[in-house]
Write a structure and sequence with these properties.
The longest helix has 32 residues, at 85-116. Helix 4 (85-116) packs antiparallel against helix 9 (228-248). By secondary structure, this protein is mostly helical. The protein has one domain (3-248). It is 62% helix and 0% strand.
Length: 257
């Protein structure tokens, strides 16, 4: 399948989903799910991104990634009218953390794609730097930590917490993630909360093990021939952690509750 047909397929799938939605209310946040249908459609498009089979396909994919990032960063989700101030504030924060988590999801999806291509290329880069990812994770966790009422609702923002947890490399952030998970588990003894926490903890162990497998240091000035198989092994390790996440997430088809 070439890039155009791949993107066309994605558009068709998103079109089917959008056909069930009220067009003039796409940007309005659903008070039960905590996000708008516009954002849901963007998440669907991210999940449907496919690994290009040739270098010629990268241009279309890069263009789609740019469109998705711009759409997520500029998305204005409307809060329904006639809500009491407390509920309105909770819905607004929920919509925000879902949007920020979607940016993290886009980054990790493209990072996974970069590691899966069957050839070397610099044409496709991860959308965000490490510092930008750190800031996004911090914002999601701070909003969840500072608004405990969000985790007391029947429909809690579990997906943003899961994505932020999977993106957390810093020990300080991981402690925050576990704190929010455990607080939520004490209040909600149903749903996927415990499974999501265990998935995040399993990912951390997998990532830490991969990080510990560092190559032996090479003496300075010594010329060393690196085999193609060694390069491929390094490339494989780069992608294996997020392959693990994708397996947890059901082949990157996210469940938002």
């Amino acid at each position: 399948m070439d890039s155009k047909s791949s993107l066309s397929c994605t558009s068709q799938l998103t079109g089917i989903l959008s056909s069930w939605m009220t067009k003039n209310a796409l940007d309005e946040v659903d008070i039960y799910s905590g996000l708008s249908n516009s954002l849901l459609l963007l998440i669907n498009r991210i999940a449907d991104l496919e690994t290009p089979s040739s270098k010629a396909d990268f241009g279309e994919l890069c263009h789609e990634v740019s469109i998705l990032r711009t759409a997520l960063e500029s998305l204005n989700q409307r809060i329904p009218q006639d809500l009491d101030p407390i509920t309105s504030s909770q819905v607004s924060i929920s919509a925000k953390v879902y949007r920020l988590a979607s940016l993290l999801f886009l980054h990790q999806k493209i990072s996974l794609t970069c590691g899966r291509v069957p050839f070397r290329t610099n044409a496709l880069q991860a959308p965000f730097s490490d510092s930008e990812i750190y800031d996004l994770v911090c914002h999601v966790l701070e909003d969840l930590e500072n608004n405990p009422n969000l985790t007391e609702r029947a429909s809690i923002p579990l997906w943003p917490l899961f994505i932020a947890g999977c993106s957390a490399d810093d020990e300080f952030l991981r402690i925050k993630v576990l704190k929010i998970f455990r607080r939520t588990e004490t209040l909600q003894r149903f749903g996927n909360i415990t499974s999501a926490r265990r998935g995040v903890e399993s990912l951390w162990r997998q990532r830490d093990l991969s990080t510990d497998e560092r190559p032996a240091r090479i003496p300075k000035y010594k010329k060393v021939r690196i085999s193609r198989s060694a390069l491929d092994e390094g490339w494989e390790k780069k992608r294996c952690v997020w392959d693990y996440v994708e397996n947890i997430m059901g082949r990157a088809k996210p469940s938002l509750t």
